[in-house]
Records
---
Amino acid sequence: MPTLYVRDFPEELHRRVRSHAQKQRRSISADVAVLIDQALAQESRRERSLEALKRIADLRRSIVLPPDAVDSLTLLREDRAR
């Protein structure tokens, strides 16, 4: 298994990681591996969400409505005004 060394690791962060590892009943090494994995998974989810939102925006822009079409926001506003 590869070894990872980190130079100039901030002391306060080390204390927080050590405390977290103790609460999780893991070694610091195991806890750091889990935390890095979770952070990377979260980043991957964020990237997929942004890609999905971009595809939705592209799809919305590609839809051409007839000139006499009324958008739902206008209908909602009219309904609330009653």
Note: The two ends are 69 Å apart (CA to CA).
---
Amino acid sequence: MPKVALLQPNADERYGHRQGYASTARPPETGLAVLSTYLRTYGQHEVVCINPEQSDEELARYATEFDVVGFTDWFSNHRRVVRIAELVKTRNRKIRIVIGGPNTSGLAQLVLEKYPFIDYVVIKDGEDALLGLVNGLLPSQISNLWYRSGNEVKFTLSSSVKLSRLPLWDFSSFDNLEVRLAEYREALARSEERDFDPWLVPPLAMFSFRGCMKAIREGVCSYCTSAETVGRALPPTRFWEQLALLRQKYDAGSFYMADDIFPITLRRMEQLAKAKPVSLATPMIRAYGYMPDFIKFNERQMERMATALRAIGIFNLFFGIESYGFEQITRANKLAVSIEESERVIKSLGKAGIKTTMAYLVGLPGETKESLSTNLNSQERLLATGYVERIYLSVVMALRGTSMFKEFCRTPSILEEYGRSTGRNLVRDDDLDYTLLQRLGVEYLTSLKPSSVNEWLSKMITSAEQYLPPHRVGGFLLESV
């Protein structure tokens, strides 16, 4: 019976990420928990989720004890994924290396063409693909899989797992679990205190829906890699059964809802609220919302939505406004909303006990001093409501696989300077220098200098910290712009 190791390496140090929590601890990864439970349930396989808090050499040495090693690949840890995979294969050429995760949809074929030590790349849902590989199925019989056939790199076909088929997942396959849960449990034990800060440590992640309703209805945002346009909802009863299991096993009560958009419809939220068991303590949940949906609600609908969200346990909604500049946000393929409309929604939710996280993207194509000034003024106005408890500020990244990245690849000046600065071809580079791309995007796709964008970003951070403690100001910041 094959032994399987799963690993999500930590991010590369080159990315200046302020995660917006007082602690830098990383809880056990829900994605790995779902995969490991799936393998144990449907294949009865031995699975270990490796503790990432080790050096690359130590991780690779441990991974060589297994038959299959699966990596979760993000843009921020891709270099480490490739490095560790190579170290593992060097030590034991018989081990099968599989990578999946949010970063793979834009580079799957390229990775297999460049790195002979990586055997397979999974895109989208990974449960059945990984199970098929571990069970020894032919690659051509496995969905969502990129693989080699002789000298050719091939893709099978896309498919979506039925969420009702997923078993209730847990963290029983994780190394060093008690240590990784220690800060989370310590913070949760203080949650009844009057001055409790819910942003002390990162919560455990949950999900109730796969796919992005915004992408389904309006198309994918230009900067987003979450391009799944097949929506699937977890049955309401299963949602609460999963939460109850985590409460029972780990005394878990604080969660981050990883859905692209959690409140997809008012009807869905009321179904979830109605299905909540009376005996289950109400959890504390932070989730993503979509402001263009909320501004459509009349007063009665807003009251119903807020009532349902509070019954579920939502205490904070994250709205990715990104920009109040009309040209910048519509160019990013998002619906524009006004500051006034946003303020109305934030106040309505806040009065019902649901506070807001606001997210801005600085340096979008078409950015101007006027649009940045508008965003700074909007931030100050919305923070002044008293209902915004967290701000997320980032310089936009043209991630591989997005339409924004394709625009960069169509811009000769960006291609030329990227090649001159890195010695690499932007179109064929899998380990992209996103810091450089951020600067080039500002230089060639806005009317501003990078130093000017950085000055405005600093102003927004300073403004936010007049209202919020520094640990509630997060984002992927760019120190060198």
Note: The chain has 18 helices and 17 strands.
